[in-house]
Amino acid sequence: MTTGPVLAARGLGVRIGGQAVAERLDLEVRAGERLAVLGRNGAGKTTLLHTLAGLRVPAAGRVELDGWPLAAMDGREAARLRGLLPQRPGDAFPATVLETALIGRHPHLSRWAWEGARDEAIAREALAAVGLAALAERDVRTLSGGERQRLAFATLLAQAPRLWLLDEPLAHLDLNHQVAVLELVAERARSEGIAVVMVLHDVNLALRYADRALLLVGGGETRQGAVGEVLEPGLLGRMYGHPLRAIEDGGLRYFVPE
What we know:
alpha/beta; Rossmann fold
């Protein structure tokens, strides 16, 4: 483990379909930090996240994990350091909820090893953390969309990486579970020093649960900084193409469309 950033992008260029998502992006995320990524639909938030995960080759620059080039790491080594929560988790084969959560333990096993008692205990603890302990033996295909999203999060918890890349982690979740997941993210960032990059759509939740924000403004332009500085009506209105107004209530700030 290094004392530098867990994740770093150096002069990163990201493009999709000939359109620039980010140009010359320099980014660092340190242990315990939570970075929210925001932008309009189609701005390239998922594409950027997949590039940071090493699933896409950048158009320019490089991504580093713990100071080492991600492109030079093998898949198992990288998976011990970073975990990706995909936007749409899928299930190609029938499996129980517990078996699905155990997938998160695969980077920690040797090539031909089976999961042991410790791996099962870690997976069950992860299920309990997201409120799915009672469903451990259920067929994953019988879960609701929200339950399946929480199971994907439990799989990430079982994987136990130091960097979480969360692509719309609140998809399919009701308000109660949205807050519960974000509280869990905040607690693990504080207690375990997890570095978090999360794509969010709700500006107010980003303001409440992130330390910093990265805005994909459009045309390759990005803006980043502390949420209290970057999340302001003028810039957000330009990014989303609709004016917003900031309101204060009880010492807290919220954004509402005009």
